[in-house]
Every structure is written in structure tokens, then in C-alpha cells.
Specification:
Elements lengths: L1 H4 L50 E8 L6 H13 L3 E8 L2 H10 L6 E3 L8 H7 L7 H4 L36 E13 H7 L7 H13 L3 E4 L9 H21 L9 H15 L12 H9 L3 E7 L2 H4 L11 E4 L10 E11 L7 H11 L2 H11 L8 H5 L5 H7 L7 E4 L14 H6 L1 H6 L5 H21 L3
Parallel strand pairs: 1-2, 1-3, 5-6, 8-9
Antiparallel strand pairs: 3-8, 4-6, 4-7, 4-8
């Protein structure tokens, strides 16, 4: 599941030389210049001169992950119903990138893709590097599907302006559209907390103090998805942002020298190391996958686990301690008055530069943000679209605990955080996510110090800067 959701980081991947797109990010095939706010919605069906409805086909490629396929089957059917003459040909698969990669190389790209930039296949990153995505700014500066306002104003604040959607450095034009959104933090059993009269810890001191109490009750304080250490992004980035502000996060996202090896970051890394060093980590964690660690937590072996709202649906059939109730807490801070940042997941839609039917693809994108689509996604997938009204539109279709977990943004002194790295040139072979999170296992096993962890990341960042310089960036 997290292979889909390491979405908070824009990791590097091997350049796929066959993905050529256009010659630069300033001229995308089929794109409309940024700032065009006069984009009108296409008619639901084009009519030929003889009065017959013109037949059109839209080819879409969808990654099939934890949300399943019910929503996609349903929304395709709805779109066809509202657009007479349109046939949507959908390819949906857990290995969708492997299926469409050769098609793109052969000049037969799909018209629309639901595939995340942080997927381990690296396809979207390759397209970004090779300027192979169509600009979507005109879609968001145009009318929403209902015709009641500008679509940009419907989208959750901060997403369209982030490098998650505008991936080119210094360029705010949109090439990736936000799909779902969801908070990530410390998942815990609210029913157990209520039974024990425990208070959710706000600071690191309170966190470790609770760990002592937890050990007395026979459970560890914390576990994580050991063989997928990237899950710890849900702890690392909010903790750094709370300790050093968004300036610290932005510096890391830009690979700046000294951004990862400094007093602020080192004290955060040390807190992560202390979870194991001081005996608060569930034994065996480093050898567990995501479902194993999540199952152990739900069975009462651990108080907390880092995860997102999707855990409830992903583990729907998993055994759990009696009365288990999903809840989410923000990552602890050093001082009680510090801002509690909450890492926000954001998957994406895109249109390849080589799409054969780009205008119909844009119409499909607009339709996906309609109230009808947003409600259907909540009903079939139990998740929430990246629109401001998403939580309330979904309320009747999601569980009470999921609705409450999304309410973490409304808690006092919290702020949403979208973590992303600047795009890399095609000559760069560094995988930023691996460089940052793979050392976690060595640190947890006391085989590496936090200082060595920071130094290893700095070395990777230095190579990235060298590669960018060599590429003329």
C-alpha cells in the first residue's frame, strides 16, 4: 500500500530515455498558456453535420491500489452517461506503469493517467524529466464542472502551488492534478486510550513518558512498517517542520548544502533513534512489512504506528483487540507551543503530452472533481478528494473514525504539510527517498549513528547538486 503512498516525497528514478515529450517545459504539446481563464467546458457530445452524435474514445490508465476498482468503474460509467457518444477505455492494474510504458515509447500514450509521481516504477518522474506531461493550468483556471466557479478555488489550499503539482523549479504552471488527500500521523486505538484515561502526547517528553506507562501495561510505545522505512516520512517531515519551520523543509527539498546535517535535523533524528535505543520500539519491527506491523498494532502490541487514513480500509478484515477505534494524533513537538505539522498525502492525475484526445481528457479531469464523483469516491473507496468540500461531501459515506481522523486539520495549532523534492535532471541517478530512509534500519539496529545518517544524506545531496550543475540547471 505504501508503495502507492510514499506520495509525500518526490523521489528520483532512472531516466527513461524513450520518453521524449516536448523539448522544454515551456512548450508542452497541446497545452494552453497559463492564465487563460476563459476555458469553456466542451459540449457533452459533439454533433456531426448530419445531426448524429460523434463517437469519441478516451483511453485512461489507472493504478489499482488500496482504493480498489469500484470507484473507477462507477465514475467511468457516470462520465459516459453524461457525455453521449463517448466511450472510455480503461486499463486498470497494480502494474499499470509496466503496461503503458512501452505504449508511450511507441507513441501510443493513454489520454489520461491516474498514477502517482512517487510510485516506485518511476514512470511519472521520467515523464517530468523529459517534459512529457501536458500543462493543466488552463483546466484549473477555467470553470468547475458544475459551472459555479473557477475550479482552482475548489481545490484544497496549497496543493496546486506545491511542487507536487507544479514540478518545475521556479515554474508555477500545473502539470499534475491532485487526486485524493489525507492526513498522516500517529494511528492509535481511541477506545483503549479512553479506557485507560490516557492523554495523547503533545511533546516528545510526553511521548516518551507515555512509553513508560505503556510498557507497564504490556505494550510497546511504537512500531512502523519495518521493511518499508519510508513510512517514517510521516514522522520525520512534520517533526523537522515543527522544529525548524518550513524553511528547514524547503531547504531539504532543494538539496541545499547543510540542510540535513544541522542541529535542528540532528535532534529530530535522535528522537527517532531514541525510540529504539530506549526500548520503546516493538520487538521485531525492522523485519515486518506494512500489514504485519499494522496487525500487531491493532492487536494491542503497540500504542502507536505511523500511517494514514487509508489504514482503516486496508486493514478492514484484520483481527484487532476488542472495541478497536481508529484515531490519529499529530507528531509530537519539542515545545508545547510549536506548530504540529501534519503530512498530507496527495496522489495525482496527469495527461501525457502525446495524448491523442487531450481536450476530452481535460473534460474527464474536470468531471472527476464534481460533487457526484467526490461522493462516489467516498462511498466506494472510503477516502476523500483533494477539494475543500471533500470532508463534508464524504461524511455520509465514510466511517465516523475516518471522518474524525480527517478532522486533525481542525485541531488547535496544526498545519498541513506537503513535502516534495525539486525535480532532477535526467543525468541524475540518485534516489532521494532511499538515501534518506534506507539508513533507518541501521540506526535502529545501532549500526549507524544519527550523525552518520545525516552525513550520508548530505553526500547524496552533493551528488544531486553536481548533477544539476552538469545539466546546466
Amino acid at each position: 500500500m505504501k508503495k502507492r503512498l510514499l506520495a509525500a516525497l518526490l523521489i528520483t528514478a532512472m531516466t527513461f530515455s524513450g520518453l521524449t515529450g516536448c523539448s522544454s517545459s515551456d512548450s508542452q504539446t497541446g497545452s494552453t498558456p497559463a492564465g487563460n481563464t476563459n476555458t469553456a467546458a466542451p459540449d457533452s457530445a459533439d454533433t456531426a453535420a448530419d445531426g448524429n452524435v460523434e463517437e469519441q474514445e478516451l483511453n485512461i490508465a489507472v493504478f489499482q491500489g488500496g482504493f480498489g476498482d469500484e470507484y473507477w468503474n462507477g465514475v467511468v460509467e457516470l462520465f459516459e452517461q453524461e457525455h453521449l457518444g463517448v466511450t472510455v477505455n480503461m486499463t486498470i492494474s497494480p502494474t499499470i506503469a509496466d503496461i503503458i510504458r512501452p505504449q508511450i515509447v511507441a507513441g501510443n500514450a493513454p489520454d489520461f493517467m491516474a498514477l502517482n509521481d512517487s510510485s516506485e516504477d518511476g514512470l511519472i518522474l521520467s515523464l517530468i524529466k523529459d517534459n512529457g506531461l501536458m500543462e493543466l493550468t488552463d483546466v484549473f483556471d477555467g470553470q468547475n464542472y458544475a459551472g459555479t466557479g473557477i475550479l482552482r478555488e475548489d481545490i484544497k489550499d496549497g496543493l496546486l502551488e506545491s511542487s507536487k503539482c507544479a514540478p518545475y523549479t521556479g515554474d508555477k504552471r500545473i502539470y499534475l492534478a491532485p487526486f485524493n488527500t489525507g492526513p498522516q500521523g500517529l494511528i492509535y486505538n481511541k477506545a483503549f486510550f479512553d479506557e485507560k484515561g490516557w492523554k495523547v502526547p503533545a511533546t516528545w517528553d510526553e511521548f516518551f513518558a507515555l512509553g513508560d506507562v505503556a510498557l507497564e501495561s504490556g505494550r510497546a510505545l511504537f512500531t512502523y512498517q519495518g521493511i518499508y522505512p519510508g513510512y517514517l516520512e510521516e514522522m520525520l517531515w512534520p517533526a523537522i517542520a515543527s522544529a525548524g519551520g518550513m524553511e528547514a523543509i524547503n531547504a531539504i527539498g532543494s538539496y541545499e548544502e547543510g540542510s540535513f546535517n544541522n542541529e535542528t535535523v540532528l535532534k529530530v533524528l535522535q528522537k527517532i533513534a531514541d525510540i529504539s535505543a530506549k526500548g520503546y520500539l516493538l520487538k521485531g519491527t525492522v523485519g515486518m512489512n506494512h500489514t504485519e506491523s499494522q496487525s500487531e498494532m491493532m492487536l494491542g502490541k503497540s500504542v502507536f504506528i505511523t500511517n494514514g487514513t487509508w489504514m482503516e480500509s486496508e486493514m478492514a478484515d484484520a483481527p484487532r483487540e476488542e472495541g478497536f477505534e481508529f484515531a490519529m494524533a499529530p507528531i509530537p513537538t519539542f515545545q508545547a507551543e510549536d506548530i504540529h505539522y501534519v503530512l498530507d498525502s496527495c496522489e495525482q492525475f496527469s495527461i501525457p503530452a502525446g495524448a491523442k484526445n487531450p481536450e476530452l481528457a481535460k473534460e474527464f479531469l474536470r468531471f472527476l472533481y464534481s460533487d457526484e464523483s467526490v461522493k462516489l469516491f467516498a462511498e466506494k473507496a472510503g477516502a476523500i478528494y483533494a477539494v475543500k468540500a471533500g470532508r463534508e461531501l464524504a461524511k455520509d459515506y465514510i466511517s465516523e473514525s475516518t471522518y474524525n481522523m480527517y478532522g486533525i486539520y481542525d485541531e488547535t495549532n496544526t498545519a498541513s504539510l506537503v513535502m516534495n523534492f525539486e525535480s532532477l535532471p535526467s543525468n541524475c541517478k540518485i534516489n532521494a527517498s532511499d538515501e534518506i530512509f534506507n539508513p533507518v534500519t541501521s540506526v535502529i539496529n545501532d549500526e549507524m549513528t544519527v550523525e552518520q545518517w545525516a552525513e550520508s544524506v548530505e553526500a547524496a545531496f552533493a551528488q544531486i547538486r553536481a548533477d544539476k550543475k552538469a545539466a546546466g540547471e
